[in-house]
Amino acid sequence: MSISIAIVEDEKNYNNALKKVINYQDDMKVVAQFFNGNEALENLFDISPNVVMMDIQLQDMLGIEIIEKLKNKLPDTYFIMCTSFEDDEKVFNSLKAGAMGYLVKGESMDKILSSIRDVCNGGAPMSFSIARKVLGHFERKLPEIKGFDELTEREKEILELLSQGLLYKEIADKKFISIDTVKKHVGNIYRKLHVSNKVEAINKLNHFKN
């Protein structure tokens, strides 16, 4: 069965080059080309392609916005970003919006074609430079969770009570300890979680729970 593909790309030469190479394949076909975001928004739902090759920085809107608006309406469509932007914010916003792949323009056409096949088989294709960013992001997150594991049971209890909005005096009364002891525990919590205030500590707690 042929893979149906829509291209959303305002650079006409690149859009047409993608179409030409894709249509040369036996197992895939371009069913739509869009050169701006509004056209794509109006028509993609009716077309429901298997894969959308999506540029991030369109002239009239961000490709990320299109994915956010259409992802739930097109649950069986895979979005692959194909763009010249590699900055962290755009990468992670694209992935959070629901993109299943992220390719940098300049990749070989062979890589692009294999990525289309890969995403249809459950993969999440990314350019090497993007994959390194994603891995680096999660490596930086690991110490946060490790820090939570270093808390004592009493410190975890106090952090939980802080997250419920209790004041130091209320925690002290509830745990039958002095306010100074509560403050000491809170200081240890901040140090182990590498945070500087209550809001950051509670955010870490919520991150761990999720």
From TrEMBL:
Which Pfam families does the UniProt entry name for this protein? GerE, Response_reg
Please report the stretch or stretches of sequence annotated as the Response regulatory domain: 4-120
Enumerate the Gene Ontology biological process terms. Answer: phosphorelay signal transduction system; regulation of DNA-templated transcription
Q: Which residues form the HTH luxR-type domain?
A: 144-209
Stretches assigned to coiled coil: none
Q: Which UniProt keywords apply?
A: DNA-binding, Phosphoprotein
Residue numbers bearing the 4-aspartylphosphate modification: D55
CDD domains xrefs: LuxR_C_like, REC_NarL-like
Q: Does the UniProt entry include the keyword Ligase?
A: no
Q: Which GO terms describe its molecular function?
A: DNA binding
Statement: the UniProt record of this protein carries the keyword Plastid: no
Superkingdom of origin organism:
Bacteria
| Name of this protein | DNA-binding response regulator, NarL/FixJ family, contains REC and HTH domains
Origin species: Chryseobacterium taichungense
